[in-house]
Structures are given as C-alpha cells and as structure tokens.
Amino acid sequence: MTALTVAPHPLLEPAAFEAELPRALGELASPPELLALLSTRAAAPLGSGNPLEAAGPAPTGARMASSDAVRAAVRDLLRHGGFKPTGRSKPASEYLIRAADEGQLGSINLVVDACNATSLHSGLPISVIDEARGRAPFSIAVQPDGMSYVFNASGQTIDVGGLLCLCDADGPCANAVKDAQRTKTNAETRKVLAVIWGTRTLPGRAAEVARWYRELLEQCGARTNAVELQSPA
Question: How many structural domains are present in the chain?
Fold first, then answer.
C-alpha cells in the first residue's frame, strides 16, 4: 500500500505508517526496555505539558502520562461526528492510562506493546492492524449510523456510527476506541498498518508519535515506511 484515502474532516490530523517484521510476530519478543515503557512513570520522549513539544527524556520516576488538555482534544475529535467517547466507548489511550496506573498493562506482542507504550505516553489513540487480514483499498472516514463490528474473540460488538474509522474494502476495521477482531495482529502477522489518531488542536503531535513508534519497531529489526495520506478522488 502506498496511500491511504482520508475523507475531509475539520479536526483530524492523522499519521500512518507500515511496518514489515523480520519474522512472524509470534517469534519476536519485546525487549526489556520496551516493556519498561508500559508504565506511566517511565521516562519517555512524549508526555504531559506542552503538546507541541517533543520533550527529551524525563527524570527517572517522573510521571509522563498525557495531560488533561490532550485527553480533551482527543475526545473533541471523536465527538465531532456525533459519537459519544465516554464510558465503555472512551478513547483507547485513556484505558491504557488506567491500566498502567493499576499495574495491569502487560505485554501482548511486540507490535502492540510498542503501540501501547507510544499511545500511553503521548495520549493519542493508535490503531494497528494486520495488513494482510484487511482488503485494499484502505480509507478513513466517519461512519454512518447503525454501523458496527465485532471487536473481540467473544463476539462483542461496538456501534461505530458517527465515529472516525479506518476502513478496508469490507468496511470499518479500526478506530480510536476499539479495533475490529477480524484484522487484529496474531502470531503469524508479518506486516502491519498503524494509524495515529491525531487532531489539529495538537498540530504535529501525531507525526511525532508515528516517528517514535517507528523507532521502537525499527530497533527490533522491522522495516517501516510512511503511508501517504490523500484526499478522495
């Protein structure tokens, strides 16, 4: 894939990239330095404070979870199409902060661990899918009322009407709240597509998050490349 079609939106400022893994995902372990980032108290290059600043590492033990201003900006982004990002439908980045605070944010796999670390510290939600499990073309758009999909192995569904979603030829498959079960990564995954759900209220932040996420994967042998974002024809 060389491009991702993004429907016009007054607030959305996404970033996207692909990563090709050196081996099947199930054969790749997350290094200790990555797992250490799954804590709100870890030193990280993105965190609270000025959302435009890509800060250097914080002092050891400093809390680096995203600020209330970042959380509010993300909720405003998701709310614009009519979706209500509260309760069980709040942004995934907020779930990560709570899980980390409670010591329940554990390792899943290399790709998801890097996703969770960058989302936790930046405050921006991130979707990551197994590109081979989706079907081109891919696009981003607010979904119509009544649209839904299964988001876990138990068959639970999420109503994505009014919510910005990553879509493939078969419909919506990921968003800033819960990604679809049908395109999630697994042990056989070799190539992923990641979308950072940035907002124009925080200009440049999505690009910084993408840069850091790519670096974490590249340090583990992945090859990454930016995905071109284009307007509909």
Answer: 1
Residue 64's CB is within 10 A of a number of other CB atoms, namely: 22
pLDDT-derived band at 77, boundaries 50, 70, 90: very high
Is the residue at 54 inside a domain? Answer: no
When the pLDDT of each residue in the chain is averaged and rounded to a whole number, the result is: 91
Give kind and range of the element (H or E) at residue 119.
Answer: helix 110-122
Cβ neighbours for 66, distance < 8 A, ≥ 6 positions apart: 47, 48, 93, 97, 121, 122, 123, 124
Q: CB 51: neighbour CB atoms within 10 A?
A: 22
The pTM assigned to this predicted structure is 0.91
Give a yes or no: residue 52 inside a domain: no
Give domain status of residue 87, yes or no.
yes
Who's near 36: CB < 8 A, 6+ residues apart? Answer: 42
Distance in angstroms (rounded) separating the CA atoms of residues 212 and 186: 23
Task: Find out whether 43 and 64 touch, Cβ atoms under 8 Å.
Answer: yes
What pLDDT sits at residue 47?
A: 61
C-alpha 137/C-alpha 1 separation (Å) is 8
* CATH number, residue 219: 3.50.40.10
Strand partners, 228: 3
Question: Which one is predicted more confidently, 150 or 45?
Answer: 150
Which residue range forms the structural domain that includes residue 138?
3-39+66-230
Is 217 inside a domain boundary?
yes
